[in-house]
Write a structure and sequence with these properties.
A hairpin with a 2-residue loop joins strand 19 and strand 20. The chain has 4 domains: 83 residues, Immunoglobulin-like (Sandwich), CATH 2.60.40; 274 residues; 104 residues, Sandwich (Immunoglobulin-like); 98 residues, Immunoglobulin-like (Sandwich). The chain is elongated. By secondary structure, the chain is of the alpha+beta class. The relative contact order is 0.08. The protein is 39% helix and 28% strand. It contains 11 helices and 27 strands.
């Protein structure tokens, strides 16, 4: 009856957990107003930032300051009206450059991300962006220790109880006392690990707090069971309830993991299977050594065969667990690593590589138990020598698996290289010892922000002689355009422009010039397509032409000048030069017509002075043969 009830309870909780729909568990910057690198005619009265998921306002911060360090934010941080947005009012800003520094506490799992962007009012230059690395904060020692203790607690609670249920039950009081000691250690580790994670942050989001409470309660149940007299509840039911508590603790770990951040049910299942398998293996090793091998005797062939049988049964169980660990770990790593070099060039990869090496060493020792010491004991061949060798091997396995749990604590506190970000295009190549990551803010035609992150190993590459982007289009001969990037942060080089102005496939060649070395080049192929919900880039068929229209910047603000860009394409898809298009504006106030100027063949620009806030219609006329209406909104 108890088993059935536990099975139903665990199934219900597991399904509820998997159906919870975990979102991206790191609040990443998506957009802002003012936009990054914006040049404004009028100063803003408020700074608003939208993130990839809901941030916790109590643990988040937005600061606005000038180049002298003077702060301008006023009032308190509050929701911006956007579901995932925060806003803060700012005081009177004069002409000059300003930096916005933000810290976002994820309401999902309590991870903190940081970032900066800049804007300028008037003709002032943009300030240099301070270094914030990859936007993540280094894990605090208390968090790493708390995670390692939690994983150790799960392993001891789940693995030791499973060992007693499925491998062998303690046969004497000494073995039962040893088992209780391990279960006490597991319960205490769960309680202490949860407390350390909870105490590490001044603000704990409600979701994370609930899952930590569930984990702590699991540890509390384990400890409370040990005080229940056997006449009320026997060892068998106690072990079964302990297994259930371990499963709940494992589920709580999965629901605050990188798998939960992906929002993918498959990743959640893989992570839970990985945690369960390594817990059964590690906790079982501890139980095998502490309750069986440590004080085992092999005074005759019967005792030797009995010990060998226990080792054989556990070795088969461990073999299945290892297969699950390797399979699930490999599948997860394929989704979290970008390049094989990530194993030595990113903090996450280094921690993962350490875990892999430790697991391989542990597996080698486990193989000795399976094929050498276990069979020798079963055949009673030099049993005492085999027992001593087995004890040393199992003790070494336990030590190595303890280090694996520490590596897991570090790993789960770091950000994987393939973590989702706000970039619409993100691709990485490894060329001549450099890691080159290209990011585009959008894959729609028009104004764009091109970012190249350059690293050599774990170190960002700074002080380059030149970093440039060269653009060519595959479908049409649009010539070659070049944008020279400036170093906006250590290892991060940024250029802005409208080089990818047409729908199609573009080759972007990145060039990195270092002192004393040949230029390092990489070619990225980027599809420029229509994006769902993109209101500032439109292709309109009018007469014999297709008019591709977009704004620069993509979101005009009241009183700030902006540019309407037009790419005129004929029925064959080729640019149409030497035309004289005109734009007529209608909206909340009167505005003079604007004539276009041709910058490159088939591409025309219309310089628009600042408009009033509201909805406007821009009627684009190309002689008498074509006319198109383009709607735009001007923000206040």
């Amino acid at each position: 009856m108890i088993r059935r009830a536990l099975a139903v309870l665990l199934l219900a909780l597991a399904v509820a957990g998997l159906r919870a729909g975990a979102a991206d568990a790191h609040a990443n910057y998506i957009r802002s107003n003012p936009a990054a690198d914006a040049r404004l005619v009028r100063p803003p009265t408020e700074v608003r930032i939208s993130f990839s998921e809901s941030p916790d306002a109590k643990g988040s911060e937005i600061a606005v300051f000038d180049e002298s360090g003077k702060h301008y934010e006023t009032g308190t941080l509050h929701p911006s009206g956007d579901e995932n947005g925060l806003a803060i009012a700012v005081g009177s800003l004069g002409d000059g450059g300003y930096t916005v520094a933000w810290t976002a506490l994820s309401a999902i799992d309590g991870h903190t991300t940081k970032g900066n962007f800049v804007f300028a009012v008037g003709n002032a230059p943009l300030p240099r962006i301070p270094d914030v690395g990859d936007g993540s904060t280094a894990p605090a020692p208390a968090e790493v220790i708390g995670r390692a203790l939690s994983f150790g607690g799960i392993a001891l609670v789940l693995g030791v109880a499973s060992f007693g249920v499925f491998i062998t039950r303690p046969r004497d009081e000494r073995a039962r006392a040893a088992e209780r000691q391990l279960r006490v250690a597991g319960g205490v580790a769960l309680l202490l690990g949860s407390e350390l994670i909870f105490a590490e942050s001044a603000t704990v989001p409600a979701r994370l707090g609930a899952l930590l409470l569930l984990r702590a309660l699991s540890g509390g149940v384990v400890l409370a069971l040990l005080r229940v007299p056997e006449r009320l509840l026997g060892d068998g039911p106690k072990r079964e309830i302990t297994v259930a508590a371990g499963l709940l603790a494992a589920l709580s770990a999965t629901l605050v993991s990188h798998a939960a951040a992906s929002g993918d049910v498959k990743q959640l299942v893989l992570d839970l299977a990985h945690v369960l398998a390594i817990s059964v293996w590690a906790g079982g090793i501890a139980a095998l050594f502490w309750t069986v091998v440590r004080d085992a005797t092999v005074r005759d062939a019967r005792e030797s065969r009995e010990l060998g049988g226990i080792v054989w049964r556990f070795s088969l169980t461990a073999l299945v667990a290892v297969a699950v660990v390797v399979t699930t770990g490999t599948l997860q790593s394929l989704d979290r690593l970008v390049l094989i070099q990530d194993l030595v060039e990113t903090p996450y990869g280094v921690a993962l590589l350490a875990k892999i090496v430790l697991l391989l060493l542990t597996l080698a020792l486990g193989a000795l138990n399976l094929v050498v010491w276990g069979p020798r004991l079963q055949r009673a061949l030099a049993p005492e020598r085999a027992r001593r060798a087995l004890a040393r091997s199992v003790m070494a396995e336990a030590a190595l698996l303890s280090l694996v749990l520490v590596a897991s604590g570090v790993l789960t506190a770091l950000y994987p290289p393939a973590q989702a970000n706000a970039a619409a295009y993100d691709s990485t190549q490894h060329v001549e010892g450099l890691r080159l990551e290209l990011l585009l803010a959008t894959t729609a035609p028009g104004r764009n922000r091109y970012v190249l992150r350059v690293h050599e190993g774990l170190r960002p590459v700074v002080g380059t002689q030149k970093v440039a982007f060269r653009f060519t289009m595959i479908e049409h001969d649009m010539g070659e355009n070049e944008l020279v990037a400036e170093e906006r942060a250590p290892g991060e080089y940024v250029a802005q422009g409208s080089a990818t102005a047409m729908y199609g496939t573009w080759r972007i060649q990145t060039i990195v010039r270092l002192v004393g070395r040949d230029d390092i080049r990489a070619v990225f192929t980027v599809p420029i397509t229509a994006q769902q919900g993109a209101s500032t880039a439109k292709a309109i068929v009018a007469g014999p032409y297709t008019l591709l229209l977009f704004l620069d910047p993509s979101q005009p603000t009241a009183g700030a000048p902006f540019t309407i860009n037009l790419v005129l394409i004929d029925s064959k898809g080729d640019p149409v030069p030497t035309k004289s298009p005109r734009v007529t504006l209608q909206g909340p106030a009167a505005a003079a017509p604007v004539d276009g100027s041709e910058s490159t063949p088939g591409r025309y620009t219309f310089a628009v002075a600042g408009l009033d806030a509201g909805s406007w219609q821009a009627t684009v006329s190309v002689g008498p043969e074509a006319q198109a209406v383009y709607g735009l909104d001007v923000a206040r």
